[in-house]
Amino acid sequence: AFKIINDTGSIDSAIDALSVRLQKKVIILIPIIMIAMSILGYLGIIVNQTIVFIPIGLLIARKLKMDPLVGLSMMYLATYAGFIGSGLDPFTIVVAQNIADLPLLSGMFFRTVVFVIMLLAAIIFLMRYAQKVMDDPTKSLMGTDYEWAVEAHQTAEFSTKHKVILVALFFTFGFYVYGAQQLKW
Questions:
Q1: Residue 37, exposed/middle/buried by CB under 10 A (0-12, 13-18, 19+)?
Q2: Which of 60, 64, 81, 58 is nearest to 24 (CA)?
Q3: Most exposed residue of 59, 64, 119, 127, measured as fewest CB within 10 angstroms of its CB?
Q4: Distance between CA 145 and CA 17 in Å, rounded?
Q5: What percent of the chain has pLDDT over 70?
Q6: What confidence category does residue 148 fall into, taking pLDDT thresholds of 50, 70 and 90?
């Protein structure tokens, strides 16, 4: 399903639109993307499925002229910071607490503090690395020849169709969270 959404060009076009708007301030996309991905990990929506987002991270890194490790890390580090410090993951937290006869979602405050600390550390580390490589591409851990990381592509203008597709995608995630929390799916 995510491949179909990606094939519409909506994500690609949104990245292009953001990079044009932000121009020299593209580094601020790192915490924005990482916060979004970490929330998905925190809620248990995506963990192993992070692999689907890696090509998008690589694409973002390429468009913003960043090291591919930045693209990979935005997705992977953020999602797992959320998963490790998760306070609401129905599969690991709720099931484990039921097995251990603990009150449902007990310790959520502590786990959330751990999540925030890990996420902040990951964001700071990645922003510093990205800025270092943007200032001097020779400081990349991958060297300077990493164009192979993402295949070439062309994108269309960020159209109303693309916006509707992305809104539908976020609505679906939101509906899933609502269903899991309120309807006990």
A1: buried
A2: 64
A3: 127
A4: 26
A5: 89
A6: very low
Cβ-contact 66, 106 below 8 angstroms:
no
94: CB partners within 8 A, 6+ apart: 104, 105
Q: Which three-class secondary structure state does DSSP give residue 116?
A: helix
* Cα(119)–Cα(32) distance, integer angstroms: 12
pTM here is 0.74
Structure tokens at 24: 């020299």
Pairwise CA distance, residues 73 & 185, whole Å: 31
Name residue 151's amino acid: E
Average pLDDT for 15-33:
79
Q: Which helix (H) or strand (E) holds 78?
A: helix 68-84
